Amino acid sequence: MTENNVLVAQSGGPTTVINSSLAGVIASALEEKKIDKVYGAKNGILGVLRDNIISLDELFGKNHELLERLKTTPSMFLGSCRHKLANIDQSTEEYKKVFEIFEQYNIRYFFYIGGNDSMDTVAKLSQYAKQIDYDIHIIGIPKTIDNDLVEIDHTPGFGSAAKYIASSFLEISHDTYIYDTESVVIVEVMGRNAGWLTASAVLARNEYSAAPHLIYLPEVAFSKEAFLEDVRRMIKENKQVVIAVSEGIKDHTGEYVSAGSAKLDSFGHAQLSGTGKYLEELVKNEIGCKVRSIELNVLQRCASHLSSLTDIEEAYQLGYQGVERAVEGHTCEMMSLSRVSNAPYKVAYQTVDVMKVANAEKKIPAEWINESGNDVTNELVEYLRPLILGEPKVDYTSGLPKYLHFDHINQTVK
Amino acid sequence: MTENNVLVAQSGGPTTVINSSLAGVIASALEEKKIDKVYGAKNGILGVLRDNIISLDELFGKNHELLERLKTTPSMFLGSCRHKLANIDQSTEEYKKVFEIFEQYNIRYFFYIGGNDSMDTVAKLSQYAKQIDYDIHIIGIPKTIDNDLVEIDHTPGFGSAAKYIASSFLEISHDTYIYDTESVVIVEVMGRNAGWLTASAVLARNEYSAAPHLIYLPEVAFSKEAFLEDVRRMIKENKQVVIAVSEGIKDHTGEYVSAGSAKLDSFGHAQLSGTGKYLEELVKNEIGCKVRSIELNVLQRCASHLSSLTDIEEAYQLGYQGVERAVEGHTCEMMSLSRVSNAPYKVAYQTVDVMKVANAEKKIPAEWINESGNDVTNELVEYLRPLILGEPKVDYTSGLPKYLHFDHINQTVK
């Protein structure tokens, strides 16, 4: 009798909870009677193509503590890639190689943890399996800090990024309020097309701080004049002004505001000027007060020590239940979650057609942005609030968070 | 009988533990029989000049929980300023005003929490008190993330910043290692003249990660050619290279490297190009691999959720024992600590002459930097290691760290 084995891989950009989904897949597969072995591919689909396959039951099967630590380790334990498979009608070369490997390892269940590009891979592999009549169940496990996937209430990874961002805005406001002088701090948040991450800065507002005082999203056409008027008014009202701005804001012609700043530079150093730097320059030149810009950068997607427990648990469940659905017979689907109620916060898990998710993008609905286009509405705040709740237990060693790394665990286990 | 009252104020740039020193001063003053009332001045010495004085025993006297929370609240609870008093032989106008306020509130003990500029204020006020024969004891409580004060083993605020920096490098390395391609990440750390903060990135190295692979400090003249050679070699050895660089690195003529980049820009936008951005550009142009620069920015001095318990406790003791020394009769001194032993880590507290501290600056000794000038020695690692140990209990509310803010507490108490 041939074995029924699982293969799991990770793809795309990091989040702080993508390994929690991996832990869910591994735990569920280890428990599932119909599954024999659990394999992982290194560096996503590239690892499959290169036969870079490792045994995960050997690593995690007898070590519950390691599996727990995996849940709070940032980025991808198995490594990642950005590799798009060709359309099947154009070339089947890579598909043949992938299914050779599937056959070699008796893979009957394949789980791909990733964003909408990865769902494209899930869709294409499912399609090819059907074409060659290969018995396999392929399920996508969603992840992205950007929260821009369709067919899901919110994406795993987003809640933790939102918590990091809101917490950073709170700490930056403490840093800003200390001097009795006018000042502007512009904080640039990730998000080229969707403003979810930038909007989550709103959660920093509390009884003593209205920061961020202004929020600029890629969903709203950016006007330099309106921005300067907003800032001038806010300086009058608050003296210290903290601004959340998405890296992806565009003017009314659809051109990135940050690209505009490159025009100032005759040497064409566009990459020197991010959106925040550009606005810093604008405020300095046009208003003339003390101004600073801060780019939150990659820490918003990898600072696991400040992740959301809600997010970690949901990511775990999506992986865990993904295995159950696959064994039940589902394929060519993405695991998803819907919000059953907001207070008390409750979600339900289900699968959705992966074809609907691949290559689509969800932006902030217009009704969740205020009329002036410089803030968000309370509906959006209520939507965001539960996603950042709860703190995981993070162990520290030598004063630093204790994470797992493939090379290290591999040495330890062997 | 007139009262013997305490006045305390904070000055300079934020750290995550400057409020822990404030908590130490308040707790000690509340316990001390010889002290009647505890006042705080808002915005440092400016608050004294403006008679912006508040009662701290009313706020904290009966609320132990608030005092505990103060210890883990970032930045300055009492606000800050950057105000240098004139030399006494030039103008005594401000001094007269300060001592009028001292007399009005029966201030016999004044504590100023700050860096070397603040120690200049402590020295001048002590000098003036002596001149006018005013009975007051003035003690400086040190703080600065930069660790550049003399006459002290290390400064309060530095350990927490070092912990944040090392933790960020660890998380950034997890973010970087996932792709199987060559890449360079340049992380810019604060420090214009002293490289302590940048050097503390070294603590991120562990069993599975050698990041930061290269460390560039302001103490070493920076050479573009040597840098590019270092990076090329490290790419060959490690594929992914993480670099720690101080914002203040200078070339052999003493000119800031970041200033050099401004020359590229015909519009004179020097402020658009930080050191990290400049090196990013250099690697992109000269080596051509994937490269990213990250500026840790103000979060390294205000991310209290990730502060060092060792640092918090030492900052508290410096404030607490500062009151005891003042009552014993000390004045015109700064509280200090020396390292009694490294393993087990143990410090002793004492006072030092504030005149020796004011306006002086401590850099990394040459013997703690490697010969190539691109790394630090093990002696420096051993010096740094104990300073980041321990994690405080940080309460969370609505998913965010719970901090104290003056406006809020004032409302709550009244």
How is this structure best described in words?
The structure is a homodimer of 414-residue chains. The first copy, chain A, is an alpha/beta fold and 414 residues long. Chain A is built from 16 helices and 13 strands. In chain A, the strands form 3 sheets. In chain A, strands 3-2-1-4-5-10-11 form a 7-stranded mixed sheet, with helices on both faces. Chain A has a 4-stranded parallel sheet with strand order 7-8-6-9, sandwiched between helices. Chain A has a two-stranded antiparallel sheet with strand order 12-13. In chain A, helix 1 runs antiparallel to helix 4 (64-71) and helix 1 (18-31) crosses helix 13. The longest helix of chain A is centred in the C-terminal third of the chain and has 20 residues, at 309-328. Chain A is elongated and about 75 Å long. The model of chain A is unreliable at 261-272 (pLDDT under 50). Chains A and B meet through helix 7, helix 11, strand 9, helix 12 and strand 13 of A and helix 7, helix 11, strand 9, helix 12 and strand 13 of B.
